[in-house]
Amino acid sequence: MRFRSVFRVSQSRNRAPLLLFRQEASRPFSQLPSRSERSSLGIAFDIDGVILRGRTPIGGAPQALRRLYGDCGIIQLLGALKIPFLFLTNGGGIPESKRASELSELLGINIVPSQVVQGHSPFKKLVNRFENELIVAVGKGEPAVVMSEYGFKKVLSMDEYASYFENIDPLSSYKIWTTKQASNSNSTSKEFTPRCNVLLDRVQAAFVVSDPVDWGRDIQVLCDILRTGGLPGKVNGHQPPLYFAADDLEYQAAFPSERLGMGAFRLALESIFNRIHHNALEYTSFGKPNPFVFKNAEAILRHLQSASYHVMTNGHPGCHPFKTLYMIGDNPSVDIKGARQAGHPWFSILTRTGVFRGEENHAEFPADLVVDTVEEAVDYILRTECTP
Ligand code: G3P
Ligand code: MG
């Protein structure tokens, strides 16, 4: 194993010396700190470029994650979780429960849905506002299913919504995949359609849930919805709210170099909309690096901590402040910037398995620590936290 760790020069906290990290033998799990000591740390793992590339585990992720559980091999219960951790990804497109099962299968550990925070997870908070309003959900996977599970009752995927408007996409007949998709289509959101006339009802909000698949069609139909006040083909009206689950310009998928992400789609939509409409596009982006994402992650980690250790204070889950929360990410302008902005108790670790590949630390958003892989990051954390 080759260690090329880099610490941030301006690091203010006292950390274990680099020498300690250079030791190659892993400390056995039985030597982890006692329950009370352990409960003051938590870990947030980015997924794309840290844990997975496409659907392939990378950087020793399965074995690294296994070290956060007890030593009983296959983990069946959350109670066996020794160090609270979660996945904090800007990706998505499927419900958190499904992502948890998928991750469990790929990584060989038992992940529960509450350990999965996706870019679109905060959309839940908008249910009160749009619960019974017609909304459109854009992106790969099952965006309408995601929104239905959050409680939105009148949600249509962009695929389904566009299918109601004849000729809305003049290029559709050239798109072999959409023809195929339409014949296999098994929509789960049709249930509400009898209560709503898509050709007459105005869309009250558009949500970009995951990376859009057909950028051309989606930009066209979103421009239609947004400039007409929610009803394509009609005259201009007030722009309905537009929400993005994240704003990543690029991310690491299975291809060797970075792929364009939701932030790139947002830029494309915005520049086109601003050329064809007199008012500039208004939108809200969620996901990392927003500080509320890190606050929310801290709250979930505290909950996992309480659930794991059954810490109770006056009959309520205990609120032990975290000494350190680690963010392990591959994208300096998203993961590291976010953790830095969130401040104490966040400590950022940048891996070289994704967007970032530099030898030294990132110049604009330097991490507290740079390592090659997630396995090295976990090794560092366990060593540091084990130091008396
Ligand atoms: O589409 C996924 C991507 O934007 C980022 O995913 O796990 O690196 O936050 P992640
Ligand atoms: Mg990433």
Automatic annotation (TrEMBL):
InterPro entries with a match to the protein in the record: CDP-alcohol_PTase-I, HAD-like_sf, HAD-SF_hydro_IIA, HAD-SF_hydro_IIA_CECR5, HAD_sf
GO BP term, example: glycerophospholipid biosynthetic process
Pfam entry (one): Hydrolase_6
Domain of life per record: Eukaryota
GO cellular component, one term: mitochondrion
This protein's name: Uncharacterized protein
